[in-house]
Amino acid sequence: MAVSIDTLGKAIRHHMFVVATCRRCERQARFLASDLGGMYGHGRDPRSLPFRCSVCDMRDCRVTLMEPPFDRTPETIVWRPVKIRG
Ligand SMILES: [Zn+2]
């Protein structure tokens, strides 16, 4: 795809998923762009979001964008971001 996605708003328009991959253990988390946009705002660059691997407890994640249809393997988990009340 030739469109460069630099904000969550654009990713939402293309119904994309945001995929965070831990650089250490390769564990992946997939989020709906629309979920993230609701939390962080549509102008946010998805690559700047603070993803953290729950296994390694590291913030060293590679963020990529994926558009449907992608291979829906049984292991595919779409995570919902959890809002922490402060
Ligand atoms: Zn990890």
For the structure shown, list the relevant keywords:
single chain, 86 residues, alpha+beta, three-stranded antiparallel beta sheet, 3 strands, globular, binds zinc ion
Major β-sheet strand ordering: 2-1-3
Distance between the termini: 39 Å
Number of H/I helices: 2
Question: What is the rounded Rg?
Answer: 13 Å
Number of strands: 3
Mean pLDDT level: 83
Q: Which ions and ligands are bound to the chains?
A: zinc ion
Given as residue ranges, the uncertain stretches (5+ residues, pLDDT < 50) are: none
Biggest sheet record: 3 strands, antiparallel
Which structural class is indicated by helix and strand composition? alpha+beta
Proportion of beta-strand residues: 15-25%
SSE string? HEEHE
Proportion in helices: 10-25%
| Backbone shape | globular
Report on this structure.
It is built from 2 helices and 3 strands, in the order αββαβ. The N and C termini lie far apart (39 Å). A hairpin with a 5-residue loop joins strand 1 and strand 2 (28-32). It has a 3-stranded antiparallel beta sheet with strand order 2-1-3. With 86 residues, it is an alpha+beta fold. The chain has helices at residues 8-13, 33-40, and strands at 17-22, 28-32, 61-66. The protein is 16% helix and 20% strand. It has a domain at 8-66. Bound molecules: zinc ion. Zinc ion binds at residues 22, 24-25, 27, 53, 55-56, 58.
